Amino acid sequence: MKSALLLATTLVTFVTAPLALANEPSATHDDEGEVLTLEEGARRMGMTNEEFRQHSKVIDAVDRVQRVDGVDAGLVGIDVDTDNSGLTVLWREDHALPNELTGRDVAGVPVDVRKVAMSDALSAWISGDRPNVWVDGVTSVDWSADLEGLVVKVVAATPAGRMSDDELVKSLNLPSPIVQRITTDSDEGFTFNSRWTDAGAHNPGSKANPSGGGSCTAGFKVRRDAGMDALLTSAHCAYNSGDPTKPFYNNSNWMGSVRFGSSTTHNTLRDIALIQGDTFSGYGTSTYVGGYNGSSLVRTTAPLTPAVDLYVCFGGTFSGERCSAKILNTNKTEGGVGPLFTAQRTSGALSAEGDSGGPVYTYHYANSGTYLRPVGIVTGSYPQTYPAPCSGVATMSCSRRSVSAQITTAQGPMAFDILASSED
Q1: Looking at the DSSP assignment, which residues form a beta bridge with residue 314?
Q2: Nearest to 69 by CA among 91, 99, 39
Q3: Is 330 in contact with 404 (CB distance < 8 Å)?
Q4: 304-362 tens-digit pLDDT
Q5: What is the distance between the alpha carbons of residues 408 and 420, in angstroms, rounded to a whole number?
Q6: Cβ partners under 8 Å of residue 291, min gap 6
Q7: How many other CB atoms are found less than 10 A from the CB of residue 19?
């Protein structure tokens, strides 16, 4: 049993019947997203003005760390210390520490560097470069900074539950030994999870219905290495029914199609897919915010790699904008999909079925304005173990804990760049 994965597209009944394919999405580009005030950004994040200023200052420091020369080789992760408004940078002990990280602060934010042991093979594995294998009964594989190794969670009465640690390492092709094994009696009930009418440029956060049934949400705008533009969504939304492509619609408006047959356009291991037209480059970049049926757009700037304890918002067709969620972990593998990060609210729904593929982001105050920063796209949730009353459109199940695909680390392997509003 594979962590009780349940496709949102098989559950939701808000479906538009397939239409005859056009050559391009029926849209004109109109993408003047709003720049918010400090006060509005703070309100949306559920913070005081001063807390939001500090939140934005920490994001500035995260940006600086991620721009350090050689950071791709040595950086393992970043944890945000919300109590002391500082950062812990996890750095590979076999890589030299750049001069910029040898001091006590970055961009005025206290920084503590912690060196961890990690091989090239393990580094590649947790960033998504892994074989397409899984074992029935394994619910998750996570890298633990505290234990400096892999933590595997299995269900007892399954093939995985009956394997030894060494057998699991071989069967999963893991690049390092298991340092902790957690056995449960049952899985956690993980399930894969519009803005409803988007006849304009088709912006991040709009409804994205795959032909053949179901409903999902469009994620951020990207530009492929070949020069084509596309919108991200979840790969599980584009289920392969034998055709070379899967068309997507927003009500009666064709948005484009997902092409099967290449991990750069339909990547099931990362749960990321690209919706694109034949030559269309007019997708919007600014992101829908507010209620599920809202039409407000906020200007979107550079993406941000997820960091533990960073506060984020989720935007989905069914739930609308849901903020005040804290990232609990990164580089997580759930049901064979990864790398993912987990976020949770203390109360209230964070995501629902139909939100899959939708934008996960944070607000950032900079240059006298508040902008939206892409962090990931919605993958799934835990409505059985972390249930919550649904917000927005009533759906079959909602949860206050959700997992999202890490999109910044997918840019190289999937050959795309996440675009800011000034780049379209």
Answers
A1: 322, 360
A2: 99
A3: no
A4: 999 999 999 999 988 999 999 999 999 999 888 999 999 999 999 999 888 999 999 99
A5: 13
A6: 320, 321, 392
A7: 12
